[in-house]
Amino acid sequence: VVNSTVGDAKARQMESFTIHQDSTTPLTTYFGTKVSDTDKALRAGARGPTVLEDFHNREKISHFDHERIPERVVHARGASAFGEFKLHIPLTGITSAKIFLDTGKTTPAYVRFSTVGGSRGSADTVRDPRGFASRLYTDEGNWDLVGNDMPVFFIQDAIKFPDLVHALKPEPHNEIPQAQTAHDNAWDFLSLHPQSTHMQQWILSDRGIPRSFRMMQGFGVHTFRLINAEGRSTFVKYHWTPHLGTHSLVWDEALKLNGQDPDFHRRDLWDAIEAGAYPKWELGVQLVAEEDEHKFDFDLLDATKIIPEDLVPVKNIGTLTLNRNPVDYFTEVEQVAFCTQHIVPGMDFSSDPLLAGRNFSYQDTQITRLGINFGDIPVNRPVCPFATNQRDGKPNMFSKSNRMAYHPNRHDVLPLTAPAEGGFAPYPEKVSGVKERAHGPKFNEFVSQAQLFYNSMSEVEKKHIIAAAQFELSKCFETVVQQSAIERFNLVDHDFALQVAEALQDVKVPDAVPNHGKRSEYLSQVTGKSQVFTA
Ligand code: HEM
């Protein structure tokens, strides 16, 4: 399925890896022998045993036997599309990354949207965060922003991720339930982890059941760095904001759709692109000068906190358009391997401990899922020239003409690129400290932004959060888990805790605690303000 953008560099590259088979191509074995019968196995007589020598039969069945690869350990169910990114406002003086400097450039893009907890065959409209993994195939290498549709996360440190996912995934003994937040383990974990208080609000809110992938925000969640040509760093948070606005289902719709059309989101994205109704997002940045790192009452390295927009406004700098459906789901969607560590010169990481773990985890899991040569898979290849000294591994499809797979050598060395010429160099952040298992003191405040979130909701939205919390907790069998969750909710809002408790038996709501009050610009999109895009 091609359209006007087939001329882009990624589309041409993908096309060069596409094998065209149609009725003009004779059916052959894998190794080129033309096949005369593919319906009946070779047998010793019409009613006799099937013989081993039938290489076509064995090849056909054996290949089928190995068709499946492990699904992603999280975010197993997803849908993707290709597209393009155009910059409108250059970040001159902020970064040397060309993707953020050249407004004349159209950069090929790719996005995979996903649910988190369900398996590959699960339904689309469950209550769950949604993955919003984007890739720009820039002239300086792939930039992957592997985000979610929520700007915060459940935990602060990646060492907790296996615990979190084990609690949210189905029970080990009976694989029940599929729904993410509707069982004791989930709420046991969440209520034992005060750091999840803010994310609990997001997941219980209407944001947990988006109307469409096309109507979702995306967030990079972590604080990253942009580095300019002089080596100066600016902290950055990334936002994708949909031109169609942010919309949710109501719970009743979500439940019905789960039964009637479990592919609802996947179909919606596919159909819109086929119909030429290309979804678009603005890429927004919140920029914080290096010297302002400590001026907030939260830690920029804490992924359970946003930067409220009244403190740092979001500046929209470019537009992402998705305009081309994949040709082959397995090759292009199942085999895409996003990695948070895929950044380009002019960017770097912050010391967010959640991000550090992710920078290890994605490549590590993809070695199991796809093999060490996953970078050779067409959807994962950059469009810029690339050359490495990596070799061999399973399977390796490309012969390298260069014999010298080591550096340096005296024969045919792959040249290095100085930072001034576009070579990547890590930001020389000054660090000091003793080695310890610890977080900064601001990591220990868990409630105030959850309060801001709840307070910024309209009355209808609050009703939805209360109903969602009543539903989720009423599915828990253990009173101690319900009681613990209610105590946490009470720290967010006393009235909220009281109303949720009405649906439960044997839980006690503690006395009210001070509420940090209302803040209008918690996050402008959350409070329902629509934005007009003129770019
Ligand atoms: C997959 C987002 C935290 C491990 C994904 C995907 C997204 C995502 C969008 C799907 C990628 C795709 O479409 O192929 C996030 C966000 C996080 C977060 C926004 C927090 C801010 C973590 C952490 C870990 C982790 C802390 C591990 C320490 C994984 C793994 C996969 C995955 C193993 C499967 C990747 C694959 O098989 O290709 N995540 N994640 N994530 N995530 Fe995360």
Automatic annotation (TrEMBL):
<dbReference type="GO" id="GO:0005829">
    <property type="term" value="C:cytosol"/>
</dbReference>
<dbReference type="GO" id="GO:0006979">
    <property type="term" value="P:response to oxidative stress"/>
</dbReference>
<feature type="active site">
    <location>
        <position position="148"/>
    </location>
</feature>
<comment type="similarity">
    <text>Belongs to the catalase family.</text>
</comment>
<keyword id="KW-0575">Peroxidase</keyword>
<feature type="active site">
    <location>
        <position position="75"/>
    </location>
</feature>
<comment type="function">
    <text>Catalyzes the degradation of hydrogen peroxide (H(2)O(2)) generated by peroxisomal oxidases to water and oxygen, thereby protecting cells from the toxic effects of hydrogen peroxide.</text>
</comment>
<dbReference type="GO" id="GO:0042744">
    <property type="term" value="P:hydrogen peroxide catabolic process"/>
</dbReference>
<dbReference type="GO" id="GO:0004096">
    <property type="term" value="F:catalase activity"/>
</dbReference>
<keyword id="KW-0408">Iron</keyword>
<keyword id="KW-0479">Metal-binding</keyword>
<protein>
    <recommendedName>
        <fullName>Catalase</fullName>
        <ecNumber>1.11.1.6</ecNumber>
    </recommendedName>
</protein>
<feature type="binding site" description="axial binding residue">
    <location>
        <position position="362"/>
    </location>
    <ligand>
        <name>heme</name>
    </ligand>
</feature>
<feature type="domain" description="Catalase core">
    <location>
        <begin position="28"/>
        <end position="415"/>
    </location>
</feature>
<keyword id="KW-0376">Hydrogen peroxide</keyword>
<dbReference type="GO" id="GO:0046872">
    <property type="term" value="F:metal ion binding"/>
</dbReference>
<keyword id="KW-0349">Heme</keyword>
<comment type="function">
    <text>Occurs in almost all aerobically respiring organisms and serves to protect cells from the toxic effects of hydrogen peroxide.</text>
</comment>
<dbReference type="GO" id="GO:0020037">
    <property type="term" value="F:heme binding"/>
</dbReference>
<keyword id="KW-0560">Oxidoreductase</keyword>
